[in-house]
C-alpha cells in the first residue's frame, strides 16, 4: 500500500515538473518571438530614419551612399551569400564610403546642428 502511494506521488511530481517545463518552453517561445519582432521593428525604424535623412536635399552625399547600399542584403540574407559575393558588396560599399567620406562628415556635422534646433 505504501509503495502504491509513493508511485502515485512520484507520478504527480513528474507531471507537475513536466507542466512547469512546458510553461517555461511556452514563455521562452513567446519571448523569442517578441525579441524577433522588436529587432524587425527597430530595423524598419532605422531604415525609415535613414531614408528620411538621406532624402533631404541638404544631404546629397548621404543620399548617394544610401542608394549604393539600399539593395544590398543584410542580416540573414547576407549570411547566405557566398564569401566572394559578400566581399564584392563590401568593396562596393567601402569604395562609396571612401568617395563620399568628407562630404558625409560635413553633412553629419550639419545634421547635428539642425537637430540641436529641435
Defining key terms:
118 residues; mainly alpha; 2 domains; 5 helices; 88% helix; 0% strand
Let me know the average pLDDT. 89
Q: How many structurally independent domains?
A: 2
How much β-strand is present in the residues? Answer: under 5%
Q: Say how many strands there are.
A: 0
Number of helices: 5
SSE sequence, one letter per element? HHHHH
First-residue to last-residue Cα separation: 79 Å
Radius of gyration: 27 Å
Apparent shape? elongated
Portion of residues within helices: over 70%
Runs in which pLDDT lies below 50 for 5 or more consecutive residues are: none
> What can be said about the biggest beta sheet?
none
Could you say which structural class the secondary elements and strand pairing correspond to? mainly alpha
Quick summary of this structure?
The chain has five helices and no strands. By secondary structure, it is mainly alpha-helical.
Characterization of the model:
By secondary structure, the protein is an all-alpha fold. The chain has two domains: 1-55; 57-118, no CATH class. 88% of the residues lie in helices and 0% in strands. It has helices spanning 2-55, 60-69, 75-80, 83-99, 101-117. Helix 1 crosses helix 2. The longest helix has 54 residues, at 2-55.
Amino acid at each position: 500500500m505504501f509503495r502504491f502511494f509513493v508511485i502515485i506521488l512520484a507520478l504527480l511530481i513528474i507531471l507537475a515538473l513536466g507542466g512547469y517545463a512546458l510553461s517555461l518552453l511556452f514563455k521562452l517561445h513567446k519571448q523569442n518571438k517578441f525579441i524577433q519582432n522588436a529587432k524587425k521593428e527597430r530595423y524598419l525604424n532605422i531604415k525609415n530614419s535613414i531614408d528620411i535623412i538621406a532624402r533631404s536635399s541638404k544631404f546629397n552625399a548621404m543620399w548617394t551612399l544610401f542608394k549604393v547600399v539600399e539593395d544590398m542584403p543584410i542580416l540573414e540574407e547576407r549570411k547566405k551569400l557566398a564569401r566572394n559575393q559578400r566581399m564584392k558588396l563590401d568593396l562596393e560599399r567601402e569604395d562609396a564610403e571612401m568617395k563620399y567620406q568628407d562630404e558625409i562628415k560635413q553633412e553629419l556635422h550639419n545634421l547635428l546642428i539642425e537637430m540641436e534646433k529641435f
